[in-house]
Design a protein that fits this description.
four-stranded antiparallel beta sheet, 15 strands, 14 helices, 34% helix, eight-stranded mixed beta sheet, Rossmann fold, alpha/beta, 413 residues
Length: 413
């Protein structure tokens, strides 16, 4: 795990602005490489330490960023009224500060916020969720008012600090993690107990934690949110405080669900999480069964505009493009480079954008120009891998994307 204060040539430390506040993060791993954002859950003492084992495994072939959420760890911990609206905006801001084809991995309650954030707009980002909340018992409205009264009563008083101190004490952390979270009690280490205790007692950290403790932050998802994002879910059956029937709710709503015997896979079985991230871009005939769509890629004569599909979720466009290239043996991610070149992130070779297929789909940003995207089928001439190339056009397009679009002879005006 990264020592935030140490500084290292192998670790990049940065931050994402959220209004007047900063949410700090660390990045490790290969570059250029597929980008992964790891979002920790919400609980007493929560911060990015949760990803200590998963991040290191992913870093061998991914660029991995793991932030502390607002109110947690090394991020700013302001004395504000933490509400679902604040948390959703903070999570959406962290996601927006990633490449457009990043994989977002989120845990527990944060997974529900990530799903809601991505469901609200078309995006190329993919979701991997670990035991997400949001589709079980309806909690957001009936419990919010009770939680607000208790939250307002204690969060600015010594009683609130005493409550957090009790929840993050060594005996409390040991009991909850060993009895409720981990399938194997021996998974808990003395280092984790000390780190949770330290993070939970940082100045200002009690405000978000009390919002969680008093159930102010629970949100309810619609099945449409799941259908729009089509996440891959790893459900941890080893936890004793979750209802395994909720995994079926996610599957019926359109998610691909995998079951884990562990309680906290990112610590107990991180290889399971890594395998899901690495497999999320497999062609559909090699993926688990999920919601299928009838729409497919369209042929575009060079120099002519791509047909627009309006608010069609971009994940559908990517899946359809990749299905067209599923006959190739290998799958890859691609990125636009300067000079109208395209880089294959499997073999790291570049090739001219003019050689990219004329098959593609255009998504228009109905409410945000940053959502004006092209999805085209790319085939690497060096290693033979195929996959979707995502290009931004319009006022927020990067120079590299514009140069590749020009090389394609694309009319997007």
């Amino acid at each position: 795990m990264v020592n935030w204060g140490a500084g290292s040539a192998d670790v990049e430390i940065g931050s994402t602005a959220f209004g007047p506040y900063s949410m700090r993060w660390a990045e490790i791993g290969a570059t250029p490489a597929p980008f992964v954002l790891l979002l920790h859950g919400l609980y007493a003492g929560a911060h990015s330490y949760e990803w200590r084992r998963t991040a290191e495994l992913l870093a061998s072939d991914h660029r991995v960023r793991f932030p502390d959420l607002l109110g947690c760890g090394q991020s700013d911990r302001p004395e504000i009224d933490y509400s679902p609206e604040v948390l959703e905006a903070a999570v959406a801001t962290l996601i927006a500060d990633t490449p457009p084809n990043a994989v977002v991995v989120a845990s527990s309650l944060t997974a529900a916020y990530a799903t809601r954030a991505l469901a609200s707009r078309p995006t190329a980002r993919r979701l991997v969720l670990i035991t997400p909340t949001g589709l079980g018992e309806r909690r957001e409205v009936p419990r919010a008012e009770r939680g607000r009264r208790l939250y307002d009563l204690v969060r600015k008083t010594p009683l609130g600090r005493l409550l957090v101190a009790g929840l993050t004490s060594g005996p409390s952390v040991k009991w909850f993690q060993q009895q409720k979270t981990y399938r194997r009690p021996q998974s808990l280490t003395s280092a984790e107990v000390a780190e949770v205790r330290r993070a939970g007692r940082l100045a200002g950290a009690q405000h978000l934690q009390l919002g969680f403790v008093f159930d102010r932050l629970s949100i309810d998802l619609d099945t449409d949110d799941v259908a729009r994002t089509r996440p891959t879910v790893l459900w941890a059956d080893g936890q004793s405080f979750t209802d395994s029937a909720e995994a079926t709710d996610w599957e019926q709503a359109g998610a691909v669900v995998r079951r884990s015997r562990s309680g906290l896979p990112q610590v107990e079985s991180p290889a399971e999480v890594v395998d899901l991230v690495r497999g999320i871009d497999l062609p559909r005939d090699r993926r688990p069964a999920s919601v299928q769509h009838e729409s497919g890629p369209v042929d575009r004569p060079r120099g002519q505009p791509w047909p627009s599909v309006g608010d069609m979720p971009l994940l559908e466009a990517i899946a359809d493009i990749e299905a067209d290239g599923a006959s190739t043996e290998h799958h890859s991610q691609f990125r636009a480079e300067h000079g109208g070149q395209v880089r294959c992130l499997t073999c790291q070779q570049t090739f001219p954008g003019s050689s990219v297929s004329g098959e593609g789909t255009r998504l228009e940003g109905a409410s945000d120009p940053a959502d004006m995207l092209m999805v085209v089928l790319a085939l690497c001439p060096s290693c033979g891998a195929s996959g979707a190339l995502i290009l931004v056009y319009g006022p927020y397009a990067a120079a590299e994307d514009s140069e590749v679009l020009l090389a394609l002879g694309t009319n997007v005006s």
